[in-house]
Amino acid sequence: MKLEVSALHLINRAMNKENLAAFDASEAVAPMSLNCAGLEIRKLDVPSIADPRWEMVSLRCEYDLGGKELYSVTWNKDGQEIFRFMPGSPTPKRPQNISGLYIDLNRSDHKQVTLLGPNTGKGKVDLAGSYGCEVSSEAPSFETDYREANMSVAVPPQSPPILEGMRPSYEVGQILQVECTSGLSYPPAVLTFILNGKEVNRALTKDLHGVGNIDGNLVSTTRLGLTMRLERHHFSGGSLTLMCQSTLPGIAHDQPLNVIEIATLAASNQRLAQEPPKSGSESNVEFYPILTYWTMTVIHVIRYNSLRFLRV
């Protein structure tokens, strides 16, 4: 990434106590092009998902100075500086006091910064965010390169969800009643039922009590029930497909986990599945001959009784 060093940026560098004597005001006059040739960040190693049960997380920044001397390596989180390494300073390691973030200075240097996890007892820890590494070379070039990457905090489930209660076959009008249970995760997984490729109406589902307080009161399971009456249109081609999908909310690189079950239409209903449903007009046509017959019979009876009455 090519940048321009402004006069203000150079003045700020020079205002460090250890650099006051070496500061040349002429450097603050003309901006210089950064990363023209030479300095380059080759790799930024930031875990896309960090396990909150880890004691620490190390973020690495691998770079090539192109033969130049290192001025500083600066790490930031969500745009705010958290750690700076300056080899030319009497105090090379400079952590910043950031709420929810604790740095292990013994494991942080010009190549990496190590963040302490929640289990270290330091207090509330918030590791999730966007982390950036900026590498700058010394005068006179003052080249700079910058890279950033996002890190989420989660414990992904290690297995697909489990679907229970599904029968191998159903008849039209019968009740489909199943339960789906996710694997242990943090945050709790979100479960979704998908019937024949379409998401099932949430009104037909019910949240059930999952298993919590496992592994340090962190990971837990999610359970979701589904109850619905099956109609003929659910058995397209004589079968239905039910999927239970598990996802982690708010996790950028989460991969959904699925379990799929297939049920067929009972043998006694197979003929119904192949026949198109009869419309209301077709049913009325079949009823017309019967209605006509009974109407004519009633008319004849009335006429016969009327003639007898007149003769009397």
TrEMBL record:
This is Ig-like domain-containing protein. SUPFAM superfamilies: Immunoglobulin. Residues 55-152 form the Ig-like domain. Transmembrane segments: none annotated. It comes from the Eukaryota. InterPro entries: Ig-like_dom, Ig-like_dom_sf, Ig-like_fold.
